[in-house]
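Design a sequence for this backbone.
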C-alpha cells in the first residue's frame, strides 16, 4: 500500500552544482515548489539505489559539554573537568579525551543546536526517533513509526541487498525487545521492524542466529514450515492487525537469507584483516561498527548500531561507571566514567569515519551519531548508588545536544549552530530532530513528505515538519 502510493520523479534537465542546490534551499512560495525540490534532489544525489545510513544510537543521552560543545569559559559549576583540544579544522574543538576525533574532524560535521521538549528517556526516545511528538511521553512503545521502519518501507524492493534485510539493528540483548529503545513501527506493521542481532561479534564463537541452514533440514529447502521455525527472530512479535502481511514478508526473507552464501559472508569477520579489527577495537562496539560497514557495502540501506554499555567484551566495569550514557550523579561519577568510556568511543567512531573514507564509501554512506538529548549544563552532586560517596553528574537536558554526521557526500569540517555561553540552549540555528531526519531521508532519496495510513486510515506524513539542513549540502 505504501509502496504503491509513492511518487517517482524524473531528474531535472541540466547540471546542478552544490552551490546551485544550496541556493534553491528548501521548498518556498517563491516559485521553487516541492516537485522542483525533489527533482533537484534526485539530480544532485544520483541514484537512490546505492545510498545507505549507519545510525549510531547512544541511549541515555551523552553529555554535550563533555564531548562536542565544551564551554571552558563558563563558571566552574558548568564547564566540567575536561579541556577542549584543537582539531585539524581551525575553530572546531572537541574534548581532550577524543584525540582521534581531532585527527578526522575534516571528515565530519557537528550539529550543536538540535533541541526538543522531552526530558524523560521514553519521551525523548520517541520524539527523537519518530520525528513526531508522542501521544504520551511515558513508556517506550511508539504510537508513530521509528525513522528506520519508515525508511525500510519506502525502500522495500528498491535495492539489491544480496538476501540481507534492508533494516538491521545491532546491540546487546536489549535490542531483542523492539520497545527498549522505541524502535517500534506502530501502524507500519511488524514486518518493518529491524532484523536484530544481539550476539557479541568480538567473541570467537560469534554467529548470527538463524542465517545458516541446519544440517538436519539442508535437504528440505522447500519445507517452509521447518525453515520458518528455524528463523524465529524475523517472525516474533506479530501484531494482530498485520499478521498475514508480516508472515508473508518473514517467509520471503527467511528463504532469501537461509539460501544465500553472501549473507553468511557479510557477517564473517574473519575476512577482515586483523589490523583493521584492532583499529576499531576488539570489543562489542568496535566489531559491530565493522559489521555495519560490511553490511552497507553489500547494499543494506539502514544499519543501526546501539553503543550503550562499554563495559563488555572483557572491559571491566568501573565502580563509578554506568552501563549507558545516563550520567546522573547517582548513576556514575561523570568524569571518571568518561575517562573509561570516551577512549573506547573515540577509537570506534574515528575508525569508522576513516574506514568509510578510505574505502570510498563517504559519498554514498551517511553516518549519524547521537543520543536522545544532552545533559544539564550545571553540574550536580549526589551520593553514588555504587560508590556511596558524593560525586558529580548531569541530568537530562533536551534543550541542547550535539550530533555528529559524516560522509553522505555532505560538506564536512564544520560546526552547525551553537549554544549560549553556558551550553543551555541554542544561540544560533535552532532546529528540531526533524531537520536531521529530513537530511537523512534526502540522502536516501526518500520523499520525506510522503504519508502513510495509520490504523484508522488517516494519512500521517513521515515528518510533519522539518527540511534538510542546507549547510550539509
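Sequence:
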Amino acid at each position: 500500500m505504501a509502496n504503491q502510493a509513492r511518487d517517482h520523479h524524473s531528474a531535472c534537465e541540466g547540471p546542478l552544482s552544490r552551490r546551485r542546490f544550496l541556493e534553491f534551499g528548501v521548498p518556498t512560495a517563491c516559485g521553487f515548489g516541492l516537485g522542483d525540490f525533489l527533482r533537484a534532489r534526485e539530480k544532485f544525489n544520483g541514484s537512490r539505489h546505492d545510498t545507505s545510513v549507519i545510525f549510531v544510537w547512544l541511549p541515555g543521552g551523552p553529555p554535550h559539554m563533555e564531548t562536542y560543545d565544551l564551554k571552558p569559559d563558563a563558571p566552574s559549576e558548568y564547564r566540567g573537568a575536561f579541556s577542549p583540544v584543537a582539531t585539524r579544522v581551525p575553530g572546531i574543538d572537541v574534548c581532550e579525551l577524543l584525540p582521534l576525533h581531532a585527527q578526522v574532524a575534516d571528515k565530519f560535521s557537528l550539529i550543536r543546536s538540535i533541541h526538543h521538549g522531552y526530558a524523560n528517556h521514553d519521551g525523548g526516545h520517541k520524539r527523537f526517533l519518530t520525528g513526531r511528538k508522542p501521544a504520551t511521553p511515558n513508556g517506550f512503545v511508539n504510537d508513530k513509526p521509528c525513522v528506520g521502519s519508515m525508511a525500510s518501507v519506502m525502500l522495500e524492493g528498491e535495492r539489491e541487498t544480496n538476501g540481507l534485510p534492508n533494516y538491521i539493528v545491532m546491540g546487546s540483548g536489549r535490542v531483542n525487545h523492539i520497545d527498549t529503545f522505541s524502535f517500534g513501527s506502530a501502524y507500519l506493521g511488524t514486518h518493518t521492524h529491524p532484523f536484530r542481532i544481539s550476539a557479541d561479534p568480538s567473541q570467537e564463537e560469534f554467529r548470527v542466529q538463524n542465517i545458516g541452514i541446519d544440517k538436519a533440514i539442508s535437504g528440505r529447502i522447500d519445507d517452509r514450515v521447518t525453515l520458518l521455525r528455524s528463523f524465529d527472530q524475523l517472525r516474533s512479535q506479530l501484531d494482530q492487525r498485520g499478521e498475514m502481511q508480516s508472515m508473508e514478508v518473514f517467509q520471503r526473507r527467511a528463504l532469501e537469507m537461509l539460501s544465500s552464501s553472501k549473507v553468511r559472508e557479510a557477517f564473517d569477520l574473519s575476512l577482515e584483516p586483523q589490523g583493521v579489527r584492532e583499529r576499531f577495537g576488539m570489543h562489542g562496539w568496535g566489531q559491530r561498527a565493522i559489521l555495519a560497514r560490511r553490511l552497507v557495502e553489500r547494499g543494506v540501506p539502514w544499519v543501526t548500531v546501539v553503543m550503550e554499555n562499554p563495559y563488555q567484551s572483557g572491559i571491566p566495569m568501573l565502580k563509578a561507571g554506568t552501563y549507558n550514557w545516563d550520567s546522573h550523579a547517582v548513576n556514575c561519577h561523570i568524569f571518571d566514567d568518561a575517562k573509561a568510556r570516551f577512549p573506547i568511543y573515540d577509537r570506534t567512531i574515528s575508525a569508522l569515519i576513516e574506514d568509510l573514507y578510505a574505502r570510498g564509501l563517504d559519498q554514498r554512506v551517511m553516518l549519524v551519531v547521537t543520543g536522545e538529548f544532552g545533559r544539564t549544563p550545571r553540574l550536580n552532586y549526589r551520593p553514588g548508588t555504587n560508590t556511596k560517596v558524593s560525586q558529580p553528574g548531569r541530568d537530562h537536558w533536551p534543550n541542547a545536544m550535539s550530533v555528529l554526521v559524516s560522509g553522505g557526500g555532505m560538506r564536512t569540517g564544520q560546526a552547525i549552530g551553537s549554544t549560549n555561553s553556558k551550553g543551555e540552549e541554542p544561540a544560533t540555528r535552532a532546529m528540531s530532530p526533524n531537520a536531521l531526519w529530513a537530511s537523512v531521508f534526502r540522502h536516501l532519496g526518500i520523499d520525506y513528505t510522503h504519508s502513510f495510513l495509520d490504523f484508522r486510515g488517516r494519512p500521517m506524513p513521515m515528518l510533519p515538519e522539518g527540511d534538510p539542513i542546507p549547510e550539509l549540502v
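The chain has two domains: 53-204+279-441, 209-266.
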